[in-house]
Amino acid sequence: MLSGLFGPALAGLLAAVAVGSFLIPMLRRLKAGQVISLDAPERHRTKGGTPTMGGWIIVIGGLIPAWLYPHPGGVGALLFAVTLVTVTFALIGFLDDFLIIRRGKNLGLRAREKLALQFIAAIAFSGWWAVTEQSFLSPDVDREAGPARIALAAFHVLILVGLSNAVNLTDGLDGLAAGVSLPVWVTLALLATFGPAVQRGGDYGVAAACAAFAGATVGYLWYNAHPAQVFMGDTGSLAIGGGLAAAAILIRAEWLLLLAASVHLAEAASVTLQVISFKTTGKRIFRMSPLHHHFELTQVPETRIVARFSIVSAACGLLALALALRNG
Question: pLDDT tens-digit profile of 47-94?
Fold first, then answer.
């Protein structure tokens, strides 16, 4: 079954490169350039005007092989669910990106508006899964009942909303969000194939989708590696976070996801800690948050930050796999 992941991954890579080859020139013609936040480090000013909304390279590049690449059982419900959540969160991000470009300043959706749309999408998915999960489990696997089931569904909502925003906060350097997310996609593809957390012998649809999005992420990095030709925008970051969370939920690997996505969570935690510290003590823990900006301001080169964060993410993914196999 492992060999069946290489096809979708390679197809995703090639599809993403192909999509990027016409999408980036189109974004330039439409003047869909990135508006740099005034809070960003000074060196980021030179990146203004770089085409954004490049997250469609990953989304479209992953969807094509996930749906069209031959695999057992055709397009199943779980594959459909992963891709639907990914596209839904991409559309939320696209709306935010579109408004920023249209207004010509870093003012897209209001925070509460964006969160509301994310929660609506997350609640819809989690509610569907709470009702239908039993039909996908082996007969000898008991499903949580009553209050425990409600609590689990609420946990799933938090994972979906939390991780999508965590990936969004990670997206601040050329190649960073994609480089950190790539090992997580690979980890989930392997967990969907072999992970004991699946408890139903694996699901090739989820595995193939994760492999396809992993390949598409590599294809996106072809254009996003420093110096970036395109940025993913909220279109890509929200899609990645939502897709990763949905895949992990469907294969019952939620806790392993939190380990594999530790770098994303650390980026989000750095923002939370910075805000709490400043509001309670008037002092900052980091020179700037998210965490990657702190290292930027200590004069660590951008490419080195990206490389090291990606390596740590890969190590976290390997640890998650090791724990899954050990417990299996």
Answer: 778 899 999 999 999 999 988 876 655 557 889 999 999 999 999 999
CA–CA dist 34, 207 (Å, integer): 33
The CA–CA distances, whole Å, from 134 to 19, 131, 222 equal 38, 8, 41
Taking CA atoms, 306 is separated from 41, 173, 175, 263, in Å, by 16, 7, 7, 11
Q: Which domain does 182 fall in, by range?
A: 2-327
* Residues 167 and 177: beta-carbon distance below 8 Å: yes
Half-sphere exposure in the Cβ direction for 42 (13 Å, CA) = 2
Q: What is the number of domains present in the chain?
A: 1
Rounded CA gap, 81 and 129, in Å? 9
CA distances from 211 to 208, 290, 318 (A): 5, 28, 16
The dihedrals phi and psi of 141, each to the nearest 5 degrees, come to -100, 120
Helix (H, G, I), strand (E, B) or coil at 51: strand
* Spatial distance between the Cα atoms of 93 and 233, rounded to a whole number of angstroms: 7
Amino acid at the residue 84: L
Amino acid at 74: G
What SS3 state is found at 65? Answer: helix
Q: Cα 42 to chain center, whole Å?
A: 27
